[in-house]
C-alpha cells in the first residue's frame, strides 16, 4: 500500500476533504474508531463521523458529497451494509477508500481505492487495518494542513509498533493462561477502556468474547463507569481494564483505583507496562488500540484453550440465514 | 424556557454556529444523544459530536471556538467533568447552553445560558431534557438554515409527545409487572436499539439496571448485533428490544425476526404499538427515545418492586469518595 499516493490522487480529484466518514460493521467498525478519534481531536479542516454502515445509508449526512472521504472496512469484502454504504457515497460524489482482506470481493473495486490487507500474525502491524488507517490519515493531514505537527512522530510510531506488539504478545502469554485458569467459568464480565481505546473495550466484548467465545460481557467507558455502571461492582464481579498510555490515562487510573478498593477480580492490561512508551507522547493515544487488539487476541486464545470453545466456531454467522 | 430567544441571542453574539458539541456524563449524556443524531442527519451547516465531558476536555477539537455551541446537561448541576468542560469551552469563546435540575448549582451561571428543568412525572415531556434539546435545535435549524423543512412537524411533535408518553405509561404497567415476575432472577440481559434510540439501550443498561438495580446487562446496537453479539443468543438468554418507528426500524425488525427464531426470552418495547405513530414520519426518529426513556422508567419500577431493590439505593454514588 502506498498511502501517500492514494491520498494525493484523492486530493487531486476532490480538491479538499472536509468530512471523513468511518463506516463498517462489527470488528471492522472497531478498527476504524481510532482514526475517527484522531480526526476529531487533531484536524482543523475536517470533521469525522463513525457509524454502523447501515445507519449511514439510512440517515446520510447532508454534508456528504465531493469533499467527503469514506473510509470503509470489510474483512470479507462483501458485507452488504458496508458495500451498500460505499456505493451510495460514491454515487453522491464522495471519495472512497475500502480496506478488505479478500481480493475477490465487492470491495476490491477500482472506484473504491481498495487496499487489500493480510491478516496473518506475522504481518507487520503497519499493514493491518488500524495501521493502514493511521498511515492514510497521517498523509491526509500532512497534505491538507500546513500546521500539522504529528507527521514524523506518527510515521516513526508506525515503524515501531510492530516490535512493541510482538514483544507484548510474548510477555502476556503466561498471564492469559493464568487468567483463563482462574476465570473460565465466570458467567459474565465487564471490559473498560477510554479515549481511542474505548473501541477495544467494544471489540474485545462483541468479537473476542460474545462472538468467538459465546461469553456474556459488557463494554464500558472508564470515564462513564463512575456515572452509573460502577454500582454493580463488588468482590464477585470480574473486570478487564484496558489502561492506555497518554492523555486519557487519568480516566483509566481512576477506574483502577476504584477497582483496587471495591473489587476483587480484575485484570489490568496496561499499555505502558507492555512497552507502548517507546511511541512519542504526542501521538501515543492513537497507538494504544493496536496493542490492545493484539492483547485481546491473546486473551481469547487463552480462554479458547481452557474453555475448549474453538475461536472459529459459529452457530449463526455464515451458518444460517438472517 | 424560551428556546427561540435563547437561540437568537446566541446567534446574535456568535453570528453562525458551525459545530454543536453535546457533553455530559451518564444519564445526562444519554439525554443528549438524540440531539446529536438529529444534527448529524439533518444539518447542512453544522457538525455535531457527542462525548463524555471529560474526554472533550482531554482531547478538545481544533474547531472549538466562537462558532461552536456546547449543549451540556448535568442533572445535579455540579458534575465536575461537565462543569470543567463547559468552562473550558466558554473560555475558548464558544456559546454554551447548560441544562440542569438544580438552580443552586454551578451550571446555573449566566455565562452558560442555563435552563432549569423540572423532572417530576407530571411535567410535560417538552420541558424535560430531551424535549428541551429538540426544541432548541429546531429553533437553531430554523434560524440558520433556509431550506430546513422539519420546523413545523417537530414543533407539533413536541406538543403531542407528552400525551403519547403518558398513555403508553398506563398501557405498559401490567406488562412491566409480568416482565419482572418472569425475569427478576435473571442473572444478565441484553438491551438493543438503533438510530437515535441506541442511546436508550445504553441508558436503560447503565442507569436503570446497572446503577439503580445493580443488575448485569449489556447494551447493543440492533444492527451491530448481527456482526458478532448474536452468537450468544439461545433460548436461555434474555433480551429487551427497543423497536423504533421510523427509518431505522428495519434494523430493529431484523433483530426481532432473529430473536423469534432463535431466542425464547425477549421483551419487545414497540414504539409503534405504543402510539408514536401520531408523530409525523419525517421526524418520528427523534421522538422515539423520549418514549423509550419513559418505558425504561416503568420497567425499572416493576423490577424494583419485585426485586425489592429501591431505585434510589446507592453504595458508591454520593456515598463514598471516588
Automatic annotation (TrEMBL), chains A, B:
<dbReference type="GO" id="GO:0097367">
    <property type="term" value="F:carbohydrate derivative binding"/>
</dbReference>
<dbReference type="InterPro" id="IPR035488">
    <property type="entry name" value="FrlB_SIS"/>
</dbReference>
<dbReference type="InterPro" id="IPR046348">
    <property type="entry name" value="SIS_dom_sf"/>
</dbReference>
<dbReference type="InterPro" id="IPR001347">
    <property type="entry name" value="SIS_dom"/>
</dbReference>
<protein>
    <submittedName>
        <fullName>SIS domain-containing protein</fullName>
    </submittedName>
</protein>
<feature type="domain" description="SIS">
    <location>
        <begin position="7"/>
        <end position="146"/>
    </location>
</feature>
<dbReference type="GO" id="GO:0006047">
    <property type="term" value="P:UDP-N-acetylglucosamine metabolic process"/>
</dbReference>
<dbReference type="GO" id="GO:0004360">
    <property type="term" value="F:glutamine-fructose-6-phosphate transaminase (isomerizing) activity"/>
</dbReference>
<dbReference type="Pfam" id="PF01380">
    <property type="entry name" value="SIS"/>
</dbReference>
<dbReference type="GO" id="GO:0006002">
    <property type="term" value="P:fructose 6-phosphate metabolic process"/>
</dbReference>
<dbReference type="GO" id="GO:0006487">
    <property type="term" value="P:protein N-linked glycosylation"/>
</dbReference>
<dbReference type="InterPro" id="IPR024713">
    <property type="entry name" value="Fructosamine_deglycase_FrlB"/>
</dbReference>
